Amino acid sequence: MSLEFQYKGVRIRVLKGDITKVKADAIVNPANSLMIMGGGVAGAIRRVEGEEIEKEAMKHAPVPVGDAVVTRAKRLKAKYVIHAPTMERPAMRTTKEKVEMATKAALKKAFKLRIKSIAFPGMGTGVGGLDYYEAALVMVDSIRDHIDHTHHLSEVFLVAYDDKLYKAFKKACERFFSNPQKQEASSHIREPSGHHL
């Protein structure tokens, strides 16, 4: 299941599935400042990459909300993982302001890496407890602002682990972008493996 939007030459694709299986230059981990990779997206990434990725990320800790660190991926479809904290400690509640800061920090790292494609999960929508649509609006607005000002991107993926988040991403994109195109199949992602991110 996927939907594509266009904005100033950039494809914004809403997908349902497992972000660890997305083919992109980088995927974003909505981390905590301590870089402990427990559950959610972080846990899914750690299960694929192994404990080495957590050890590498923790070398940079503590990482404040509004900053991000990058580790190279070895077993993922992506080349890099951008760890952008949405909270200071594991399993904290977060806010839309922190999600905005984390999204912008990830995009800033993507710009420095000169990457062409980046995949975001629902930032702050897991243990962070943020409303799906509220998080999606903040994320999509930050992505649009980034494209408006400076970027190297050709493709942005918004990856939903369930139908509710997919619909929230879709609704947010419809508010900021136009001309969605349904994609019957995607070569960028496999079907969900069954675990809940």
Task: Describe the protein in words.
It is a single chain. With 197 residues, this protein is of the alpha/beta class. The chain is 35% helix and 21% strand. It has helices at residues 40-49, 51-58, 96-113, 132-149, 163-176; strands at residues 2-7, 10-16, 26-29, 69-72, 80-83, 117-120, 155-160, 178-183. Strands 4-5-3-6-7-2-1-8 form an eight-stranded mixed sheet, sandwiched between helices. Helix 4 links the parallel strand 6 and strand 7 (155-160).
What's the structural blueprint in terms of helices and strands?
Elements: E1 2-7, E2 10-16, E3 26-29, H1 40-49, H2 51-58, E4 69-72, E5 80-83, H3 96-113, E6 117-120, H4 132-149, E7 155-160, H5 163-176, E8 178-183
Parallel strand pairs: 2-7, 3-5, 3-6, 6-7
Antiparallel strand pairs: 1-2, 1-8, 4-5
Helix pairs in contact: 1-2, 3-4, 4-5
Question: Which properties best describe this structure?
Answer:
eight-stranded mixed sheet; 197 residues; disordered C terminus; 5 helices; 35% helix; Leucine Aminopeptidase, subunit E, domain 1; alpha/beta; globular
